[in-house]
Structures are given as structure tokens and as C-alpha cells.
Amino acid sequence: MKLYIKLFALSSLFMLGSCSEDFLENEPYTDKVTDNFYKTPSDAFEGLVAVYDVLQREAYGGPLLVSEQASDDCFGGYGIADGQADIEWDRFLYVSDKDMNKDIWANAYLGIYRANILLENLDKVNWGSDTALKTRYEAEARFLRAHFHFTVAKMFGDIIPLDHTVTTSEFELPRQSPEVTYALIAGDLKFAADNLGSENYSQNGNANFGRITKWAAEAYLARTFLFYTGVYNKTDLAGVVTKAQAVTYINDAVTNSGHGLVPDFANLWLAASLANFVGEDNTEMVWAVRFNGSGKGNWDLHEGNRFQVNIAPRGGAIGKYATGWGGATVNQKLVAAYSAADTRKGASFIDYVGENLNFDAQAREQRQYTGYSWKKYCPITNAAGTSVVEANGGNFQIDNYQDYAIIRFADVLLMAAELNLESNPALAQTDLDRVRDRAFKNTTNRVTANIANIMKERQLELALEGLRYFDLLRQGMSATKQAIDNNTGDSQFNVTFRTETQGWFPLPQSQVILSNGTITQNPGWN
Fold first, then answer.
1. What are phi and psi of 321, to 5 degrees?
2. Using one digit for the tens of pLDDT, what is the confidence trace for 221-261?
3. Is 371:332 a contact under the CB 8 Å cutoff?
4. Maximum Cα–Cα distance for the chain, whole Å?
5. Would you call 81 helix, strand, or coil by DSSP?
6. N or C end of the chain: smaller count of CB under 10 Å?
7. pLDDT band at 170 (very low <50, low <70, confident <90, very high)
8. Exposure b/e, 321-353, CB count within 10 A at least 16 = b
9. Phi, then psi, of 174 in degrees rounded to 5
């Protein structure tokens, strides 16, 4: 099978975009010609910023939202007159928008392209005696290349792994087997983990917060190891990382990273804590994508978090929660899975009835109203009831500013618990206990460390953070279907997971068309 790669420029020109706060806060650069641009470390830094810039494009229809709608966490939501794509993500259908995943595909390959340009030009830079800086830039770029590859591989299955910029003679590159793709991903992450220093950028006000660290690379290695070995029933990560090595990496991140849990789970989320919000540069954030509201309504910039408006309450602000589109309404079954004593319940979801908020779903034209929506990532209002974003001169759609947490330390602990189950069950228990103790604020709600309890804890701790669907896939099709299928008697909430898809999302139809018949759609999507 072959696939045309025509979603990004294959010329010698590349655009260096803007990124956000501190390290990522840079004005847009003009077009540069790679043949004569890479001369100094400063040039290489600009190239690195361009790779990081792509991270900020988690916007409408990105992997976080799509995967949550497809999981058992959420339904499609949005307004009764809105298009059907979000319902189709929820129900695993493919009717109205055959190109519904094109942005996920395009943005990932844009990031891969920019990373490869930088990596291919590092040797042209005059590094002087500072070869360590070259190694650092290579490690960060390779980590990001792995991240972008994993983004599409976990959603679409077989993809086109690229360790170089493609030429015009390579427009028809084949999709590769998972072994090939994950060998590239593992090699890149291993290089980053082995070559980055021990710095921890989560300290308050650190200018490098948002940059890749050794600890992020070790945690990401564990994440890809668990996904690949689970989904493909393998014992190692594509022959590159053994389970023993994965255990060593994740235990190192737990023990030596300097990261830890914030004492109160609610304080991680602005809408759940307000004045007690610990801030985004906190010890629990192992790696996050930074955003700010400096765009002030400029749609050509990607400074703001464009995801947040999707999940905010539809039809106007209500209480402390700012307005949005009402997407991905929360499944009541998820909320019911929490104990009343679990502090994560109140911190993760807006409970309209429980919080005495008069949400008139009919008047607000809310589709698939469940009584619950996202508190994590929900934008907020000020004391006057005005969106904080708009009060600061921004556009409520594109200038939200909360960071997107890709790896929290709680996830690191749960991955460590899972990976240590066989070789060191006592350590696995300790890691799980730390997460449970924080959630309940006591030590009397602990559960035995086994795979079922760890997977359940992952759902409760990491709900609405873009991980649940992929955790289901690695448990197999039967478990995935059992979790996602929903029939409450109300047809608007009926969901039937189709195992014939093997859990993979449909390829963007534009890619199938561009291939002139040399590739076929993923199984179950014809």
C-alpha cells in the first residue's frame, strides 16, 4: 500500500512560527531558506522553536477531543443544529465528513517535517566547542518527531514513518508496519532520554518550562511501550526497548526527576480551584504544551488554546464557567464511577444540578445533554461574570490560555505501577497508593495493585485528558466494546463500537484520493 505525502511543503522553504510563554514566546519569523540559513546556534534555536510551534495546534478536531468523544468518557455533544461529525466520532460512524481527521494528520506531518529539516541541518551549524548544545537540540527535535509520529500511529494504525524530508521522487511512500514505525519512535525517545540532562523545568517561573526534559522522554517511552505491547501483543518496544529497560526508565522518572504530586487534585485545574490554583508551572507537570492569550483575536496566530471553547458550557456563561460550544458532554457512567469521597469527582466535572446552576438545555440548544460537562480545562469568568479572556481583550474562541498537560506525574506513577506489577509488586503498590491517597486525602481508600485496579485508576485520575480511548485499545477489542457500547433506552445516547475497525480511526479521505487507488481505507471504514 502506498500513500502520497502532499500535506506539507516539499521545498527548501519553511515557516518559523510563533510559540508561547518564555521559551516558546517568540514573534513570527519570516520565511528562511534552509540552504543558507543554518550557520549559528541561534539559527538552530529558531528551527527548534518552529518544531515546538506545531504543538499549539491542538484545536478544533484535535486528538484530545476526538479520542475523548470516541471513548466511554464522553458523547459527541455540541448544538442541536451543528454538523454530524462529532456524533460520528462518538458513534464510530463515517457518513457526513469523509475528511474529518485531516487536521490531525496534517499537523502531525507538519511537525515531523519541521523536525526533520532541523535534524538534517544541525551539522551545518558552527557549534564551536559547544557540542553539548547540538546534542540537546537533536534530542529535543527527535523527541518531538517521536511525539508527532505517535500521535498519528495510535489513531490510524499503519502510517508513513519519516526519518528524513521526502523528495519529489518519494511522493508515493508506503504505509509501514507498526514494527517499523515504533522502532523509529523508540529510537528517538531513547536518544532523548539518554542525552538530555537532569534539569526539571517545573519550578515556578522557569523560562524553559515547556521544553523537553529527560524525565518527559523516560515517561513517554513508558507510554509508547505500554501502548505498543498491549495493542500488538508484543513483549518489547519494536526490538529497541525491552520491558526491563522500560521499567528502569519509568522508575528513574519516579525517583529522580524531582517531580511530585500537587497535594490537592482540584488545585491543578483553574475552574476547580480559582484562587487556590497552583499555576501551570507546578511540580506535577512533567510535560505540557504552553498557551497564552496574547493573540488578541488574531486568527493567524496559534498562541491561544483553541480547544477550550469546544468543551465549555453552551449558550453563554453560567456561574464561574465561561461560554463555549458544549462539545463532548460527559457520560453519566463516568461520573457515577467515582466514590462520593473522591475529590477528583467534583474537580473534574461541572455538575449543573449539584452546583445549583440553572442550565436550560433546550433554550441553549445543547445536544446530548447529560447534566455534566468538563471542569478540567473549562475557561472561567471574572467577578462581573465576563469571560476572563474577553475582559483581557481577547477572543473567547481562540485566546484561552490554559496549558495542555500531556504528561502529569500522576500518570508517571500509574505507568510505573503497571510496569512494576510482575517484577516488584510492592513498588507497584506504593506507586498506586500515592495516587489514591491524594485523591481521597487519606490512606483508608487504598486498593490492591493489580491490572484491573490500575486501569480503573487511570480512568478516574486521567479522565478528559486524552488517554482513555488508547488505554481501552491496549486491553483488546472485547474490553473496548464492552466499555464503549451504550444503550440507555434514549436513542440519542446509543453507541455501538464496531470491532471490525480494530479501533483505528478512518484515514482522511483526501489522502486516499491523492493515492490514486494505491492505498485503501482502514478496515471497517469503506
1. -95, 125
2. 999 999 999 999 999 999 999 999 999 999 999 999 999 99
3. yes
4. 70
5. coil
6. C
7. confident
8. bbbbbbbbbbbbebbeebeeebbbbbbbbbbbe
9. -80, 150
